[in-house]
Amino acid sequence: xxxxxxxxxxxxxxxxxxxxxxxxxxxxxxxxxxxxxxxxxxxxxxxxxxxxxxxxxxxxxxxxxxxxxxxxxxxxxxxxxxxxxxxxxxxxxxxxxxxxxxxxxxxxxxxxxxxxxxxxxxxxxxxxxxxxxx
Amino acid sequence: xxxxxxxxxxxxxxxxxxxxxxxxxxxxxxxxxxxxxxxxxxxxxxxxxxxxxxxxxxxxxxxxxxxxxxxxxxxxxxxxxxxxxxxxxxxxxxxxxxxxxxxxxxxxxxxxxxxxxxxxxxxxxxxxxxxxxx
DNA sequence: GTTCGTGCAAACGGTTTGCAACAAT
DNA sequence: ATTGTTGCAAACCGTTTGCACGAAC
Lengths: 134, 134
Fold this sequence. Notes:
The structure is a homodimer.
Chain A: H1 3-12, H2 19-28, H3 37-47, H4 53-65, E1 70-72, E2 80-82, E3 88-93, E4 99-103, E5 108-110, E6 118-131
Parallel strand pairs in A: 3-6
Antiparallel strand pairs in A: 1-2, 3-4
Chain A binds a DNA duplex (25 and 25 nucleotides) through helix 4.
C-alpha cells in the first residue's frame, strides 16, 4: 500500500487527505500491529516531526468514525487501533501484551444466535496465552 | 451472602477484614453487575460516607491480587470488576454499556487448541448487541 | 510501639478540548 | 471571507502513589 492508495482511501471515505492525515494513515492503516495512539504518534513523528498529539488523536478518531479503523479496549488502560475491518478474533500474548489477529475461520463458535434474551450484532473470541517462539 | 460470609471469605484469602474492606466486599463480591471502581466507591459511600477513593481502589486491587475478583477491560476507558471467578463469556449491550455474564455452556468454541503457534491459556467469547427488553 | 489500614491530596498516563494561527478554496 | 485543519497547552478522567494520622494488637 503506497501513499497514493491512502489518499484515495481517505477520499473514498470522505476524509480530506491532509499531509498529516496521510502520514498517520500510511502507518496505521497498513499495519498488522495494533498500535496505540501514542505509538502511532511517535511513529509518525519520525517522518513528520512537527505533528502534534492532538492531530494524531483526532485523526485516529476520525478514521474510526469513518469506518477505516476499529478501536479496541482489549488491554488495560489504553485503546489500540486495528485496520483489519473484516471480522476476526484476537489473541493477546500475556507476557508481551502484543495483540495478534486470528482469522475468522480458525475458530468457530456455536449457538451464538441461540442466546435467549440477547440480540447479537457481533462477537469475537478473545484468546489469551503465550505466542510460541517458533 | 451476608456480612459474616464476606468476613470469612476475606480471611480465607488472607485479607484482614477491616470495616471498609468488608463494606466494599459486600457490594462488589455479591453482585451480578460489573461495577467500575468509581461505581463501587459511590455505592459503598452511601453506607460508609468517609471512605476514600484510594481505599476502594486499593481494596479492589487487593481482591484481584488475592483471587476474589477479575478486572475486565471490556468497555472503553475504564476497568470493571467481576466477582464471577469461574469461566464464562460476556455480552455487552452497545446502547447501555452494561455487561452481562453468559454461562460457559451457552456457547461453544471449537478449534481453540488447534491454533498453531499459540499456547492458549484462556479464552472467552465477547458478544455485542442489544439486550432484549423482556 | 510496631504494624497495618485509612484518608487526603498530589501525581500520573492516556485522551480530549478550547483556542488562536493557519491553510486552502 | 469562509471553511476546515493544525499545534499548543490546559483540562479531563480514571487510577496510583506518598505520606502522615489513627486503630489494633
